[in-house]
Design brief:
Elements: H1 2-19, E1 25-32, H2 42-53, E2 56-68, H3 75-84, E3 88-94, H4 98-103, H5 110-122, E4 127-134, H6 141-151, E5 158-163, H7 179-195, E6 199-202, E7 205-207, H8 214-220, E8 233-236, E9 241-245, H9 249-257, E10 263-268, H10 271-282, E11 289-290, H11 297-308, E12 312-314, E13 321-324, H12 326-330, H13 332-335
Parallel strand pairs: 1-2, 2-3, 3-4, 4-5
Antiparallel strand pairs: 5-7, 6-7, 8-9, 9-10, 11-13, 12-13
């Protein structure tokens, strides 16, 4: 971890150096994710990011998220992260059913996950998100309900629920539930969380009013983001340039020790790519997309088909926009390509 923290600091310093003596830039979110970043001690994280944070002007509603696995945090570490300025925690619980945790190969137990949630709130965090999986082999609606209800004993503000996907060569692939059962799981989550006061604002994400993930909303709204670390992807929304860092940790560290940024490739999005991304991103969100975008006979025909099937509707609040229904969200992988 020391080697990685040192390399991360070098990359942040190179980014700051390339920027030069420009006016302080406005920073509204930081997201520390990928793997288990809470294995990194707070002081090491602060040191690594200081070249960028020291040059930034933080917005009044600045959001700084750190992802955590239940077994990698305790109250003392959480207090140190909060003192550093982190104000949002995303906890990867996945399930609270012991048999499902074992099947998923998770190293934490139900008891460890609940203790981690308790430590997070005792450390003073208010903006807390939890991650769950549905469509897991052997999972029933009742086990899914029990897990989410248990998490809701805490005042969580945000919940992500992802459908388990596996490659065909995975040992559990043949045991995955069929599409009908997967759809049942996804629609149950939408209904249950809606009744609990959560807004289904993105395909897999639910939030209490005012608590959407601001960082992820930046992604989905096509705004710029800078990413550091192995395999990290960045995007410049003014120049439409996307870039990716080298994937291997050794290659990442070696490139930075040589004084170079570890960018593996970069590309300027073509007009066609930008059009595709517009559809992919807009229909992920509950705000949907402007009706004027259905500007070809094919798009208008498919819109009519999906409206008759109850998968797309007019937005109930925002005039002149179309959005996916909960069932449309669940089937978005089949719907969105029809408009591209």
């Amino acid at each position: 971890m020391d080697q990685f923290a040192a390399a991360l600091g070098l990359e942040a310093a190179l980014v700051a150096r390339e920027r030069g003596p420009a006016p302080p830039y406005r920073l509204n979110t930081v997201y520390v994710g990928g793997g288990t970043p809470t294995l990194l001690e707070p002081h090491a994280l602060a040191s690594a990011l200081s070249p960028i944070l020291s040059e930034a002007r933080l917005e009044p509603d600045f959001e700084w998220t750190i992802e955590a696995n239940p077994s990698s945090v305790d109250k003392a570490k959480l207090l140190a992260y909060r003192k550093l300025g982190i104000n949002r925690v995303s906890l990867g619980i996945q399930s609270l059913a012991p048999e499902l945790l074992a099947r998923l190969g998770r190293i934490h137990t139900r008891e460890i996950a609940i203790r981690a949630l308790d430590d997070i709130f005792r450390a003073g965090f208010e903006n807390v998100s939890v991650d769950f999986l549905c469509g897991v082999p052997g999972q029933s609606i009742s086990t899914l309900e029990e897990s989410i209800q248990e998490a809701q004993r805490f005042p969580i503000k945000h919940l992500s629920c992802y459908l388990l996907t596996l490659p065909p060569d995975h040992s559990m692939y043949q045991e995955l539930p069929d599409e009908e059962e997967q759809l049942e799981h996804l629609l149950w989550v939408d209904h249950f969380l809606g009744n609990a006061g959560f807004e289904h604002y993105e395909i897999s994400n639910f939030a209490k009013p005012g608590w959407k993930s601001r960082h992820n909303m930046n992604y989905w709204n096509g705004l710029s983001y800078l990413a550091l670390g192995p395999s990290a992807h960045s995007f410049d929304s003014e120049k439409f340039i996307r870039s990716k860092n080298v994937s291997s940790l050794s290659g990442y560290c070696e490139t930075l020790r040589s004084g170079r940024r570890p960018i593996e490739w970069s590309e300027e999005l073509t007009p066609t790519q930008r059009e595709i991304e517009k559809w992919l991103l807009a229909l992920r969100l509950s705000e949907g997309i402007a009706e004027e975008c259905f500007n070809t006979p094919q798009r208008r025909r498919m819109l009519d088909v999906f409206e008759r099937q109850g998968l797309v509707v007019s937005h109930p609040v925002l005039a002149g926009r179309k959005r996916l229904t909960p069932k449309g969200f669940a089937l978005s992988d089949q719907i969105i390509p029809s408009f591209i």
